[in-house]
Design a protein that fits this description.
The chain is an alpha/beta fold. The chain has a single domain, classed as TIM Barrel. The chain has eleven helices and ten strands. Strands 1-2-3-4-6-8-9-10 form an eight-stranded parallel barrel, surrounded by five helices. A two-stranded antiparallel sheet has the order 5-7. α7 runs parallel beside α8 and α8 packs across α9. The longest helix is centred in the C-terminal third of the chain and has 21 residues. The chain is globular and about 60 Å long.
Length: 325
């Protein structure tokens, strides 16, 4: 078994549809087929599932048995608060009180399902909660609904860890939970021990952040619950193969995550539209393992000396030497 807790969702084996090729770049596979092929990826220990988008209440035991039969853990259970047109104006902040209540009650049920399925945690990403135009949103009211809604959901199951994911844009033009500072404000405002942060490397880049700094900020507060691994060109959440564009930033990201004592999952979150899905996810896992090993091999004492002086030359020299090993 790999020494790292590495998992993935099933997007590499999905059609990977987009607005130009709406039927996707490959044929659909059943959930059982996706689980079977994921189990063959070397280094994968767990998977991420979306409730109720990928399975319903009547399939809980079947899905749990499938995971057990393939020796896979349920790394996280994501709440499906975005992939349905009913959420188009928001879930927790929908202007329709009935939709808001449905989102909250569905999320509570998701926490119960996560417990029943022995999920490590729950991923909470209200991607449709935001706005697209000036003069569209009642900001004070939406923020009240967002904070009150998350607090109610979290209080429903204090024993279930909830990892909240931030993203600056998409599917909305502006997402409410858009960066590390905004999410930290929410966590401190609600102040419940079972809610924390998901730091998605690509989301942090698009937010104009340094992902290592963002992860360190949450870790300092004991709120670093989940890590998503991918890459992009900083302008869009392209979900590319790990370490293919921003190699140094990825290595620094892993260094500070390891230094923080993080013991959670590293989840691959990639959309290989035109690449072979199996090959892409295998490369993601291999790159992640290699970079985590490199991060572990950095001489922390020497680097700390350089950091204490803000000596960029010495710090850069140290990491370049890793490439010669």
């Amino acid at each position: 078994m790999t020494k790292y807790k590495i998992g993935s969702g099933f997007t590499p084996f999905s059609p990977c549809a987009e607005r130009f090729v709406t039927n996707g770049y490959r044929d659909s596979m059943s959930l059982e087929e996706q689980i079977a092929i994921m189990s063959k990826v070397e280094g994968i220990r767990g998977i991420a599932l979306d409730y109720p988008a990928q399975f319903g209440d009547d399939e809980i035991r079947k899905v749990r048995a499938l995971l057990d039969s393939y020796g896979l853990e349920l790394a996280t259970l994501e709440l499906g608060l975005y992939p349905d047109r009913k959420w188009k104006l928001g879930s927790i902040t929908s202007p329709d009180p009935g939709i808001r209540r449905e989102a909250i009650e569905m999320s509570k049920r998701g926490l119960d399902v996560a417990r029943e399925m022995r999920a490590h945690d729950v991923l909470f990403w209200p991607g449709q909660d935001g706005f697209d135009y000036p003069f569209q949103a009642d900001y004070p009211e939406c923020w009240k609904q967002l904070i009150d809604g998350i607090a109610e959901i979290a209080a429903h199951a204090p024993d279930v860890r909830i990892a909240i994911e931030y993203k600056p844009k998409e599917p909305r033009g502006q997402c409410f939970i858009r960066n590390a500072g905004t999410l930290l404000y929410i966590l401190q405002k609600i102040a419940l021990p079972n809610i924390g942060a998901t730091v998605d490397f690509g989301h942090s880049l698009v937010a104009g952040e340094n992902p290592a700094e963002a992860a360190s900020l949450f870790a300092r507060e004991g709120k670093l619950f989940q890590i998503h691994c991918n890459d992009n060109y900083r302008d869009w959440d392209s979900d590319m193969i790990v370490g293919t564009v921003n190699l140094w930033e990825t290595l620094e990201f892993f260094y500070w995550i390891r230094k923080s004592g993080y013991d959670g999952w590293f989840l691959m979150d990639v959309f290989p539209y035109r690449e072979d899905g199996f090959a892409a996810i295998q490369q993601c896992v291999s790159n992640t393992e290699r970079l985590l090993d490199m991060a572990a091999s950095i001489d922390g004492t020497t680097l700390q000396t350089a950091l204490s002086r803000m000596d960029a030359v010495a710090g850069t020299k140290l990491v370049w030497e890793l490439l010669q090993k």
